[in-house]
Amino acid sequence: MTDTTKTPGITPEIVAEHGLKPEEYRKVLEIMGREPNLVELGIFSVMWSEHCSYKSSKVWLKKLPTQGPQVICGPGENAGVVDIGDGMAAIFKIESHNHPSFIEPYQGAATGVGGILRDVFTMGARPIMNLNALRFGSPDHPKTRHLVSGVVAGIGGYGNCVGIPTVAGEVNFHPAYNGNILVNAMTVGLAPADRIFYSAAAGAGNPVVYVGSKTGRDGIHGATMASAEFGEDSEEKRPTVQVGDPFTEKLLIEACLELMATDAIVAIQDMGAAGLTSSSFEMASKGGVGVELDLDRVPLREEGMTPYEIMLSESQERMLMVIKPGREELTRGIFEKWDLDFAVIGRLTETGKMVLRWHGEVAGELPIDPLALASPEYDRPWTPTTPPPPLDPASLPERDPLEALETLIGCPDLASRRWIWEQYDHLVMGNTVVRPGADAGVVRLPAECGGGKKGLAAKVDCTPRYCLADPVQGGRQAVAEACRNLYAVGARPLAVTNNLNFGNPEKPEIMGQLVGCLQGMGEACRALGAPVVSGNVSLYNETEGKAILPTPTIGAIGLVEDVARIPGAGLAEAGLALVLLGRTRGELGQSLYLREIEGREEGAPPPVDLEAERAAGELLLALIAKGRVSACHDLSDGGLLVAAAEMALAGTVGCALDVPGETPKTAWLFGEDQGRYLLAVRDADAILSAAEAAGVPAVRVGETGGDALKLSDGSAISVASLRRAHEGWLPAYMAAELAAE
Amino acid sequence: MRSAVIVFPGSNREMDMVAALEQASGKKPALVFHKDTELPEVDLIVLPGGFSHGDYLRAGAMAARSPVMAEVRRRAEKGVPVLGVCNGFQILTEAGLLPGALMRNASLRFVCKNVTLRCENAQTLFTGAMEAGQRMTVPCAHMDGNYFADADTMKRLEDSGGIAFRYVDGEGRTTEEANPNGSLDNVAGVFNETKTVLGLMPHPEDATDPLHGGTDGRALFHGLAEALA
Q1: Model confidence at A701, in pLDDT bands (50, 70, 90)?
Q2: Disruptive mutation site among B17, B55, B105, B110 for chain A (greatest number of A CBs within 10 Å)
Q3: B102: domain range?
Q4: Buried b (16+ CB within 10 A) or exposed e, A217-235
Q5: How far apart are CA A279 and CA A487, in angstroms?
Q6: Which of A372-381, B160-169, B216-225 comes out lowest in average pLDDT?
Q7: So where's the catalytic machinery, residue-wise (chain A) (predicted)?
Q8: What is the enclosing helix (H) or strand (E) of A322?
Q9: For B123, phi and psi rounded to 5 degrees?
Q10: Predicted structure pTM score
């Protein structure tokens, strides 16, 4: 990078290299009243990138429900904050690190975890659990193994070292992600409800403090990279991927939480995408103040760095704070105790401007509000997706259901993820009550929060193939399934965070997917009483013009009143009745059965009846609270037969299932009708009458026992064979990597 | 039993350990920072799990040279019992307080799962509440738990009751499948010569509450609390 304070003039090529459209550059000139220098242009570029400005989605995001009696802080801060009672708050958010993870899977995924952890502890919370939602290309694609291996190792490498348990997640494989994988990481933290820290700067003259790691040249223009489509040159973008240092992050957590116990902090913001630029602009803009930064004081890792590089670096594990005057030495003492850098790098002013000083000269001077608030906002043209007609189950050939089950239970989307979550420390902190592999992860809350009985449950969910076929139903389904997974562990949904992963929004059909998914998501959040309190948008997920499946991942959290009453995920006892809650029509459109067994991706996805979802969920919570449910699992991919098999695999006994005559057998066993749960119970009659009273369809479908899964026609498959298929696929697939190299 | 838990930069299971010690002894352990050069009067010193200094050098190598370790060594030489779990075990080998070394897992991957341990020597103050051959299921969570020592050291350990725990299967056999990390002879934990220092890779502190899914880890802490009451 050349000297950037004296530039030869901004050419249209330089503007284009910074990802700004000509009309956007005209707005830059208008705001500045002159030609910007390169530092200033770089700042506009990252601040107005899709990643930082949400310019394509903002108009639609505003329609989501974000309020509720439990909401302490909705979208707009580093993370969402909800009240969980007993004077405590849960702080959580999900964020994508898709593009970096495709370019450099280990560091991309690792820094994704680091970034989301910072968003949460910045607000005063100690992180208590991590989750992740991963989408990879086809297992046959030559890059997939390498990406799975690197992403999983990166997530583990970061989270394990920092010491936060990774308790749940989801993984899909589909060719639509061949050139553009998705890595969405979520963190949930815990803080006293009256000690939440925000980012709005205040108090002219107050010192602006930099803490954490030194600034290097890594990640320059990461935010603009993450806002562009990939071409064939994506390999060359590797230097824009940041490198994570989880050890420093761990120290930063401890130092920040120690400082937060004092009265020193006025405002705090992590340096994430667009680094010092975005953090300082957002803090100043939210507080309506100006800021002067002395870039000579920024701790640097390398010599010869320019103001342009310092402002745009995305070096990790850094925080920016405004502290009260006179608290400098207290703050310095805490950060030096933890061997972290500390520097006063500027002051707040009343000018409404950002002034950057470097070697005694002004390296940049920009008005804050026009830049931060007047970022472009587009109401992009969109065309709604026309959902395909429903699939007639009678059009499918008859097949042996147990053979199909053996195939399904070992297919890439349903095979055991043990190989993955055994690489994540899911037990550190000693509070994990429900481990990975169950419907949702559950962490016990500390004794001061409900006497040690309460727990916090969390899960991430989305079914992209439904979203592609019918974005509205798909958007609803993502919320409904995430909440269903919470209900299944006895948790009442509190709120959600969303990660909107889509293709290029400048294409009307992609924009239509986004609009449709958000509509469905909003409807479901309202119906289930779980507002959206934080989120992240990742657009331009395309490679050479091919978009990913629309993937609006939902991360949901819920409160468990009594962790001792959480039903098991597996069948642990013979002689229990199996009861199916929810209505079964036999929806095979867009089902996993149709794709994996018939090789067809067709039909309308299962419709989501939100009232029925809520009624079934509430009934289940009441039954669990009364201790009437021994084991429970929600029905999703693969329907009833897969759910029964998963419960047998998670437990110690098998089961026998009745196959009624009125619905086609395949549709009954593999249909993906929504709003359903399979329960193992001691007293089926009590469950059936409670369900009738609640208006929830319920039917006894079998009983537990034996070491096989049996159907009423006498056919059977041993749990051992199912286990071989289920546990075998991923380790064998990943072992082939070593053989190949 | 008065105890102290050392906090290194990057320790992350110190609170799990504090909870287990407090449950067994009824006394809150003291937390001692790695930069401290003094230790309170205690009956037991514990080095907890984590990634001290990020394990960016060999696991435990930098922590073994922390200021506090001089005092830990002095106390250990005086016979004060020292327990190291996971990263704590790695630090004890790097400090020369225990024989052998912990190498990268044979799979080259981090591993977090339940393992079954067999008590190999019940005649120590750590294992007084156990019987020889007793099995317990506790979780492990580590990247570098592959125990190695040269043949002479292994023989000396074996002959002197220096092997504390081995990884075994449900029937108590030391199979390859039961070994999560490739440790030589399925060794999961070792004692020093005087049986006053114990290091082990798995986490008994995370198996002390029914909500953990098992309480087999209690035997270690209750045995210690009884022996050091």
Answers
A1: very high
A2: B110
A3: 3-227
A4: bbbbbbbbbbbbbbeeebe
A5: 38
A6: A372-381
A7: 51, 97
A8: strand A318-323
A9: -100, 40
A10: 0.95
Instruction: Calculate Rg over the CA atoms of chain B.
Output: 16
Mark out the alpha helices in A632-717 (DSSP H runs). Answer: 639-650, 665-670, 684-694
Q: Out of A161, A423, A428, whose CB is closest to B13?
A: A428
Rounded to the nearest 10°, the torsion over CA A724, A727, A729, A731 is -120
User: Cβ distance A144 to A173 under 8 Å?
Assistant: yes
A560-573 core/surface letters (b: 16 or more CB in 10 A; e: else): bbebebbbbbbbbb
Helix ranges (DSSP H) in B61-198: 67-78, 87-94, 151-159
Nearest-CA distance B113 → chain A (Å): 6
> Is A221 among the catalytic positions?
no
Per-residue model confidence as pLDDT tens digits over A214-227 = 999 887 765 555 55
Predicted confidence at residue A3, as pLDDT, reads: 44
Q: Whole-angstrom Cα distance, residue A484 to residue B110?
A: 31
Residue A423 touches chain B, beta carbons under 8 Å? yes
Alpha carbon of residue A707 to chain centroid: 37
Q: Is the pLDDT of residue A575 over 70?
A: yes
- Tokens standing for residue A145: 């193994």
CB A107 within 8 A of CB A239: no
| CB count in 10 Å sphere of residue A140 | 10
The length of chain A in residues reads 741
User: What CATH superfamily classification does A567-741 receive?
Assistant: PurM-like C-terminal domain (3.90.650.10)
Whether B140 sits among the annotated catalytic residues: the reply is no
Interchain pair B51, A246: CB under 8 A: yes
Per-residue pLDDT tens for A242-251?
Answer: 889 999 999 9
* ipTM topping 0.85: yes
